[in-house]
């Protein structure tokens, strides 16, 4: 390992020693589960390791807080999507429900779509999903959501732009 690599490891070790318990306490104040807070704090430091120069930030606590908040939001978003999916599955007869492995793949797909459309309004996401997943025409979406045809076109354009940006990068 190079000298800079060894120095980075030492910096991160020091950063961890100085801030892990602080970060756990900070995250715990926003969560109900102390073990979840420890998981978020650990994942935060794992993400720090993936940065190009992980020991070179000026305000380490601000960076740690930002990463931890993003991880909490991702967790809450996942929980909300899973809850909505499971509620929907309750309305489907048992013989038509997918196997547990398929359910996990569906939830993962929903999360990927949600991340893909991140930044859109909930109504723009609804337009995209109604068209792409439910197969509704623009006219039916207008009726379903009570919005104009022009608004549906605008929202679809925004959603498709998000998709293209992901595929271009």
Automatic annotation (TrEMBL):
<dbReference type="InterPro" id="IPR013249">
    <property type="entry name" value="RNA_pol_sigma70_r4_t2"/>
</dbReference>
<dbReference type="InterPro" id="IPR014284">
    <property type="entry name" value="RNA_pol_sigma-70_dom"/>
</dbReference>
<dbReference type="InterPro" id="IPR036388">
    <property type="entry name" value="WH-like_DNA-bd_sf"/>
</dbReference>
<protein>
    <submittedName>
        <fullName>Sigma-70 family RNA polymerase sigma factor</fullName>
    </submittedName>
</protein>
<dbReference type="InterPro" id="IPR039425">
    <property type="entry name" value="RNA_pol_sigma-70-like"/>
</dbReference>
<keyword id="KW-0731">Sigma factor</keyword>
<dbReference type="Pfam" id="PF04542">
    <property type="entry name" value="Sigma70_r2"/>
</dbReference>
<dbReference type="InterPro" id="IPR013324">
    <property type="entry name" value="RNA_pol_sigma_r3/r4-like"/>
</dbReference>
<keyword id="KW-0805">Transcription regulation</keyword>
<dbReference type="GO" id="GO:0003677">
    <property type="term" value="F:DNA binding"/>
</dbReference>
<comment type="similarity">
    <text>Belongs to the sigma-70 factor family. ECF subfamily.</text>
</comment>
<dbReference type="GO" id="GO:0016987">
    <property type="term" value="F:sigma factor activity"/>
</dbReference>
<dbReference type="GO" id="GO:0006352">
    <property type="term" value="P:DNA-templated transcription initiation"/>
</dbReference>
<feature type="domain" description="RNA polymerase sigma-70 region 2">
    <location>
        <begin position="15"/>
        <end position="80"/>
    </location>
</feature>
<keyword id="KW-0804">Transcription</keyword>
<dbReference type="InterPro" id="IPR007627">
    <property type="entry name" value="RNA_pol_sigma70_r2"/>
</dbReference>
<dbReference type="InterPro" id="IPR013325">
    <property type="entry name" value="RNA_pol_sigma_r2"/>
</dbReference>
<dbReference type="Pfam" id="PF08281">
    <property type="entry name" value="Sigma70_r4_2"/>
</dbReference>
<feature type="domain" description="RNA polymerase sigma factor 70 region 4 type 2">
    <location>
        <begin position="111"/>
        <end position="163"/>
    </location>
</feature>
């Amino acid at each position: 390992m190079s000298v800079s690599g060894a120095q980075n490891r030492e910096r991160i070790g020091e950063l961890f020693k100085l801030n892990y318990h602080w970060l756990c306490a900070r995250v715990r104040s926003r969560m109900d589960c102390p073990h979840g807070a420890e998981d978020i704090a650990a994942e935060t430091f794992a993400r720090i390791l993936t940065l190009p120069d992980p020991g070179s930030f000026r305000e380490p606590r601000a960076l740690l807080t930002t990463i931890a908040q993003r991880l909490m939001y991702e967790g809450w978003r996942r929980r909300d999507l899973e809850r909505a999916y499971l509620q929907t599955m309750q309305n489907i007869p048992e013989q038509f429900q997918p196997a547990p492995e398929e359910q996990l793949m569906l939830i993962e797909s929903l999360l990927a779509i949600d991340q893909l459309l991140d930044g859109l309004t909930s109504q723009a996401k609804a337009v995209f999903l109604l068209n792409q997943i439910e197969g509704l025409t623009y006219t039916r979406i207008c009726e379903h959501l009570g919005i104009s045809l022009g608004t549906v076109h605008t929202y679809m354009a925004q959603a498709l732009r998000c998709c293209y940006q992901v595929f271009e990068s």
